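Troubleshooting: if your tokenizer reports a length mismatch, compare against these two reference records.
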Amino acid sequence: MNPTWSPWVLTVLSQPTGRPAYHPAILLKIYIYGYLNRIQSSRRLEREVQRNVELMWLTGRLMPDFKTIANLRKDNSKAIRGVCRQFVVLCQQLGLFGENLVAIDGNHHLRAQADDLWSQGSIKAALTCSRSRLMRHAAFALRSFLQERQ
């Protein structure tokens, strides 16, 4: 398999005065590191870049400040989503995603446990239940609407 990557252009605007801008790839590495380690704050990412050996290695010991990291998110959200989408496509092409098990954890306050894993049968049962509940609500809304018109 030969995955194809489409170019997603990340931009970093440099000011006419001061130091030159950081390369967008360096800032993207910091952003992805923060995402994987649940670090959302750009100020906290700045501290991590200064103290964390993994990030020092990833960035080549470059240490952008929090405003630079925040500006990357603000100015390049569409390009970042594109990079993440291409990563998912690459993982699919390499066969890294299985289709027999789904893990759902929508709340970061809850610990992920073994019982959070859903089998195909439990997913189908949950969808059937949701579908029937939706149909009941739709029927109720339709009856209410028709009664109001009479």
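Reference record two:
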Amino acid sequence: MLIGSETTAWYVGLSLGVVVVIVAVIIVGIILILASRIAVQARTAREAVETIRAQTAQLGGIRQINGSGVRILHAARALRKAAVGK
């Protein structure tokens, strides 16, 4: 009778071990699939950033353009004041 219960316990332990290994394999598989998706998205994002960088590299003189615009605005306000008298 004692030998039968030891064998049963051994089978139960072995079955639980197999279940744990199967669950671990499933989890690792899911992680690998998600990592692959993230890698594809990261590659797409990197390409988009490079495109944006190429498109905005020509805006290097924007500070000078803004400064000129501000000076034109101040000159226009001064002219308006002189014309209206305020």
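Descriptive notes for reference record two:
- Residues 2-56 form the longest helix (55 residues).
- The mean pLDDT is 88.
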